Amino acid sequence: MFLPHRRPDLPGGHAAAPAPVRLTRRDLLLLASSLAAAPWTRAAAQDAAAEQDRSAPTLGLDQFLRMSRVLTGFDDLQDDAIGSEYFEALATRTDGTRRLAGLWRRGGFDDPETPASVEDLAARGVYDAPDLAELADTITGNWYSGTYVTADGELRV
Questions:
Q1: Element (H, E) at 149
Q2: Of 89, 84, 114, residue with least CA distance to 99
Q3: Phi then psi for 132, rounded to 5 degrees?
Q4: Which of 105, 100, 76 is CA-nearest to residue 88?
């Protein structure tokens, strides 16, 4: 019978000892310097991510309504209270504020020539990024259907 940990070609079917690894002095120094730099590299990556979060625009209801007007094609959405509910539901989801800020940035809402249509957003690559396309579709769907999903996953009308 052949077992994965046994080698039938060796006497008694036992596994051979692994070959020793030969490290040169240079290999040892490279390994040591790589291990010493690992905590610093991780800290630098965390600092860069935190800096990106700090540089992200702080979006509020007014900015959300601006994006909603472009996405729906309606200049007068007529109900800030409903818009506030939609905004809060999206912003309180995991990564919600980051995703909204990403849509704001990629959509060019701070640019001198702000987008005026879905076509403008498409030209800026919003629909090329799957997470932004999904968010844009969710915002549009909320306004057109009158329904939204809370951060807890509850469907509301």
A1: strand 148-149
A2: 89
A3: -75, -40
A4: 100
User: Rg of the Cα trace of the chain?
Assistant: 27
Could you tell me the two tokens for 120? 């403008």
pTM strictly above 0.85:
no
DSSP helix/strand/coil, 59: coil
Whole-Å CA distances, 52 to 101, 126, 154: 11, 19, 31
3 vs 79: CA distance, rounded Å: 70
Q: How far apart are CA 151 and CA 19, in angstroms?
A: 55
Tokens, residue 110: 């701070």
Tokens at 70, concatenated: 């472009």
Distance CA 103, CA 16 (A): 58
Provide the residue-wise pLDDT of the chain in tens; the chain has 157 residues: 444 555 555 566 555 556 666 767 776 666 666 666 656 555 555 554 444 444 556 788 989 999 999 999 988 877 888 899 999 999 988 888 999 999 999 999 989 999 999 999 999 999 999 999 999 999 999 999 988 888 788 788 8
3-state helix, strand, coil in the chain (%, to 5): 60, 5, 35
